[in-house]
Specification:
The protein is mainly α and about 400 residues long. It contains 18 helices and 10 strands.
Length: about 400
Amino acid sequence: MQNTAETGPDAPLDVTPLLDDPHAAYAALREAGPVHRITGADGSPAWLVTRYDDVRSALADPRLSLDKRHAGPGGYRGFALPPALDANLLNMDPPDHTRVRRLVVKAFTPGRVETLRAPVRRVADELLDAMAERGRADLIADYAGPLPITVICDLLGIPQRDRRDFLAWSDALITPDPSRPEAMKHAIGAMLEFYTGLIAAKRAEPGDDLLSDLIAVRDDAPGDDGGDRLTEDELTSLAFLILFAGYENTVHLIGNAVLGLLDHPDLLRQLQHNPAELPPAVEEFLRFDSPGPLAIRRFPREDLEIGGVRIPAGDSVLLSIASANRDPARFPAPDVLDRGRDLSGHLAMGHGIHYCLGAPLARMEAVTAIEALLARFPGLRLDVPRGELRHRRSLRSRGLISLPVAW
């Protein structure tokens, strides 16, 4: 692939290699140059940043806005989300980002998350019990998927009867079917109706859950100047973000990590005998095969340079977490899964003020899920040839469609 910093912006890269074999494609791009012109998933042009130092700096650069109002004319289109789902932290800059994040961050502190470890292990054990008699399972559909959706739904207070619908809506948004554009539109409308109804129900009968707490912040805590509260759209969008992001990223983290272990049986056996070593191993799984290959799209507020390439104000900028985490200038032998390496500074959870709010919860869920799985099924193995496994074809997420295993 060519470096379009040299060939010009009218020759955007074909992103097909990034879908077919992303790590090999990113390696070629890093070698060719630090910044490349591509056509994004929505058909609009974007600048792709691939090297670690540039990605890390850009993640914390206040000149790069997440607010789509800074996008130039004829550029980024993205999801056509209604305002009630779009007013979330992924589209905000300070001071709104600071205000909203401060109102919800206490729900995801390491101490608060630690209180959820026993309930998460209980859910994991129940799922493993259901799988045990069959002797084989699809680890995505039967375990990695149900676990985080159960945890997040319990955290928000979402009824059991609604969870299957949410999974279908999420799949329609995560991997849209080009032949059925109406499916995404239906999923967005259904989600908005669902959240609106759920918030109304929680207002009428608050529960001991995070969503009820957020409604209280919205309704009862205006602050001295009315600034420390959520708007109604922010409340709905925050519930959408917590449920959607908390499900998708954790599913892929667990699935990618287990596949990494099945590809490295010596490491699998080591962690079975020494589960206390799982937390640092999860950090390496995050670096090695990040569930979120790209950071949220950014828009320069002014003309700027990244890696010596001039990027005009309003253009779309994509920061490749997956490429940065395999940059040999930062991580020697980056294509080797090595739990003993120095993992300080990996970017799988972001960097700067937009660092992943749910990172402590995702890490705890992954450690707990993998520990329970390895303890229950010491003979865990792939149930299909390795070459038959398929990842979702997506630039924005990295995850397996299925992971058939046996024991």
